[in-house]
Amino acid sequence: MKLKIHEYQKTYLAMSTTKNLFLLATLMVSCLAFSQHKHHGKSDSTNTANEYMHRSSVDDLIMRFESPERDAYQKPDMVLEYLGELKGKQIMDIGAGSGYFSVKLAEKGAQVIAADVNDEFQGALKMRIDENKLENIELRKIPYDSPNLEDNEVDMVLIVNTYHHIENRSDYFSKVKKGIKPEGELVIIDFFKKEIPVGPPVDHKVSLVTVKKELKEAGYTQLDVNVDLLPYQFIIRAK
Ligand SMILES: C[S@@+](CC[C@H](N)C(=O)[O-])C[C@H]1O[C@@H](n2cnc3c(N)ncnc32)[C@H](O)[C@@H]1O
Fold first, then answer.
1. Mean pLDDT of 229-239
2. Cβ(158)–Cβ(94) below 8 Å
């Protein structure tokens, strides 16, 4: 009888040890997955935006970003005119991609920091800079969670079709604010959150109401919102 109880206890112990080991292993795998996720600094929504975009190859994306169809709705000349005098200004273009705006800003005489998280886009833009001997564009590889700006480094930060790719935006854009000189500004251009023929699916876009709320949380007190200049995108100038 004694022996039977002893055996039962051993079996029970073995079973509970196996169960605990299994639970421990599950916990470790979850922690690892979580830490890798945090390491890349991407939330689910941000993953969605970047994963959705990268369903196309970078070569295809560049063709699309630089296409005449994009020019037709992006109206870059009107946008640059709207931004005013750019000559001599220090401007960071966050999520520069193929350099659609970085190159145009540089051609207007700005000193541009073309910032991106992606090596392929940075590589393609480097070739473009070299081929066109553009001396006033600097490339800056940045992490997902920071623009890596020095305090008061730039007069303007421009972010086009990339706001919805950023996670923890209030925190991110308070870092951006520190990098902008006191008289400088943040300019956001992004898609209206509705069905339109261009841009990502509606649920990847961020509504104007949310953008304004997040910018206030980030410390911006003056927001100038333009919804008329472009057919599919709003422009916010924030200080
Ligand atoms: C839709 S593209 C826009 C490119 C460019 N601004 C334009 O208007 O053609 C989005 C860009 O943002 C970059 N990006 C994604 N997440 C980012 C992040 N957290 N910080 C900076 N850039 C990011 C991508 O690598 C990509 O180059």
1. 98
2. yes
* 196 HSE (CA, 13 A, CB side): 18
Nearest-CA residue for ligand 1 atom 1 is 161
Return the residue whose CA atom lies nearest to atom 11 of ligand 1.
95
Pocket of ligand 1 (CB under 6 A): 50, 53, 65, 94-97, 100-101, 116-118, 121, 142, 144, 160-162, 165-166
* DSSP codes, the chain: -HHHHHHHHHHHHHHHHHHHHHHHHHHHHHHHHHHHHHHTT--HHHHHHHHHHTTS-HHHHHHHHTSHHHHHHH-HHHHHHHH---TT-EEEEET-TTTHHHHHHHHTT-EEEEEES-HHHHHHHHHHHHHTT-TTEEEEE--TT---PPTT-EEEEEEES-GGG-SSHHHHHHHHHHHEEEEEEEEEEEE-SS--SSSS-GGGS--HHHHHHHHHHTT---EEEE-SSSSSEEEEEE-
Nearest CA to ligand 1 atom 22: 95
- For 93-113, the pLDDT digits (tens) are 999 999 999 999 999 999 999
pTM of the model: 0.83
Task: Average the pLDDT over 183-197 and give the result.
Answer: 97
pLDDT of residue 31: 34
What is the domain partition of the chain in residue ranges?
2-39, 46-238
Instruction: Tell me the CATH architecture of domain 46-238.
Output: 3-Layer(aba) Sandwich (3.40)
Q: How far is CA 76 from the centre of its chain?
A: 20
